[in-house]
Amino acid sequence: MPATVVILGGSFAGLHIAHALLKKNTKDLKVVLVSKNSHFYWNLASVRRIIPGVLKDEDIFKPIAAALKKYPESSYEFIVGTAEEADFDAKSVRITTESGESKTLSYDQLVVATGSHTAGNVPWKAEGTYEQTLALLKSTEEKVKAANHIVVAGAGTTGVELTGELAFEFGKTKEIVLLSAGDKLVNGDIIAPAAANELKKLNAKIQYNARVTETRASAADPAKTEVVLANGETLTTDLYLPTMGLIPNTTYVPAKYLNENKLVDVDEFFRVKGTTNVWAAGDVVSKPRAGFMITQKQAAGVSKNLELALAGKEPIVVKQLPMDILAAAVGRSRGAGRMGSFKLPSIGVYLAKGKTMGLPMMSGYIDGSVA
Ligand SMILES: Cc1cc2nc3c(=O)[nH]c(=O)nc-3n(C[C@H](O)[C@H](O)[C@H](O)COP(=O)(O)OP(=O)(O)OC[C@H]3O[C@@H](n4cnc5c(N)ncnc54)[C@H](O)[C@@H]3O)c2cc1C
User: Fold this and answer.
1) What would the DSSP string read from start to end of 245-288?
2) Please, are residues 334 and 349 in contact by the beta-carbon 8 Å criterion?
3) What pLDDT is recorded for position 327?
4) Are 258 and 264 in contact (CB under 8 A)?
5) Average pLDDT over residues 358-368
6) Any idea which architecture 3-119+246-323 has in CATH?
7) In the chain, is it the N or the C terminus that has fewer CB atoms within a 10 Å radius of its CB?
8) Please, is 182 exposed, middle or buried when counting C-beta atoms within 10 Å of its C-beta (0-12, 13-18, 19+)?
C-alpha cells in the first residue's frame, strides 16, 4: 500500500506542496489534494479585477486539475471539496465533495493549507467555491461601475492597493475614501507616508482615526450604506468595501491545535504542535505574518519535511525569508514599498508589482516550477 498524503487547500501553499511531492515521482506515495476551489486563484490581483475592463477572469484563475494532469494518474487524486472535520488521533478527515457527498479520507501524513478569508462579502480571498468567487468578483465590478461614492475600510496593504486601483481609474469622476482606524496607513509601517502621498496624487481622500463600528442600509435610500465610525460620525456611501480582518479557515481543526487567534499552532518544523504527522503552511499559520512569499518558503520546508517523514527521518527547521518585503501597488503606475528597512522607489514597486500584480508568477504554480 502506498503512503497517503492528504493536502487540504489548493492555493499557494497546498498546490506548491502537491507539485513538490508529485515531482519526486515516488511509486509508493499517493497525494490527495482537497480544495474548495476547482481553480487556483491569483487573489493578489483581485483588487484590480474589480476595475471594469482591466483584467479577465482567465487571467487570474487557472484550473487545478489541468495543473496536475502531467503526473501519473495513479499517483494523485484531486477532489473539489471542503474539509468539515479532522480527527488527528484517528488520522482521518471528513470532507463534503462539490456534489454534496460526505467522505472520510484516511491519511499517513496530513497538510493543513486552507488559508484564510477576509471579513465581509468581498472577493479578496477565495472564501467560497470557484463559481462563487467568480460571481462575487463580477458583482463587485458592477457595483464599482455604478457607484459615485466608494468607501474602502481598512488601511493595510489590501486597503491601500484597492484605494489605489479605484482612484487610478476613477479619481477624477468618483469620490474614493479610505478609512484608516489609526493615524497612519499600514499600521504605521515605514511605507505609510509614501503610500499616503501616492494615494493623494490620485485624488483619493484618506480619513484617519476612522474606525468602523457598524454598517447598515440607509433608511432614506436602502441602496446606500451608512458607515458608522467610532468617533460618532456617519458616512453615507454607494459602495462599502471592507478590507480589514483575515479569518483563518480552521473551523474543521480541533480547537486544541489552534492558538488564541484560531491559527494553527506549529513548531519550527511547521508540524502542528502535539502531532507527529500533521503539517501546516501559509495563511492558516500566518507566521510571522500572512504573505505569499512567506508561504512559498513554508511550503518548500513542509515539502522537505514530508519527504523526510515518509522516509522515517527527523524533520529539519523550516527556513524563513531572510528579509521582510512589503510592497503596495498604488494604481497602475506607482507604489510604496520596502525591503527590510530599505525604502523602495515608487517606480521600483510599480515595475516589481503594480505593473502586473505578480501575474507572471502564477505560471510557476500551474506548471509546478515553483516547487
Ligand atoms: C488583495 C491581496 C493582496 C495580496 N498581495 C500580496 C503580496 O503582494 N505579497 C504577498 O506576499 N502576499 C500578498 N497577499 C497575501 C496572499 O494572498 C496570501 O499570503 C496567500 O494567499 C496565502 O496562501 P495560502 O495557500 O496559505 O491560502 P489561501 O490563498 O487563503 O488559500 C486557501 C485555499 O484553501 C481552500 N479552502 C478553504 N477552506 C477549505 C476547506 N475547509 N477545505 C478545503 N479547502 C479549503 C480555499 O478555497 C483556498 O483555495 C495578498 C492578499 C490579499 C487579500
Assistant:
1) -EEES-TTS-GGGB-TTS-B-B-TTSBBTT-SSEEE-GGGT-SS
2) yes
3) 96
4) yes
5) 97
6) 3-Layer(bba) Sandwich (3.50)
7) N
8) middle
Q: 179 vs 6, 51, 69, 160, 227, CA distance in Å?
A: 41, 20, 45, 10, 10
- Give 103-114 pLDDT, tens digit per residue: 999 999 999 999
Could you report the per-residue pLDDT of 214-237, keeping only the tens digit for each?
Answer: 999 999 999 999 999 999 999 999
pLDDT digits (tens, 9 = 90+) for 303-347: 999 999 999 999 999 999 999 999 999 999 999 999 999 999 999
Architecture per CATH, domain 130-243, reads as 3-Layer(bba) Sandwich (3.50)
- Asked if the model's pLDDT at residue 369 lies above 90, the reply is yes
Give the other-Cβ count within 10 Å of 102's Cβ.
Answer: 10
Domain with CATH 3.50.50.60 in the chain: 3-119+246-323, 130-243
Ligand 1 atom nearest residue 116's Cα: 30
Atom 37 in ligand 1: which residue has the minimum CA distance?
114
251 lines ligand 1 (CB under 6 A): no
State if residue 362 touches ligand 1 by the CB under 6 angstroms criterion.
no
41-67: pLDDT as tens digits: 999 999 999 999 999 999 999 999 999
Q: Is 301 close to ligand 1, i.e. is its CB under 6 Å away?
A: no
User: In angstroms, rounded to a whole number, what is the distance separating the alpha carbons of residues 252 and 90?
Assistant: 14
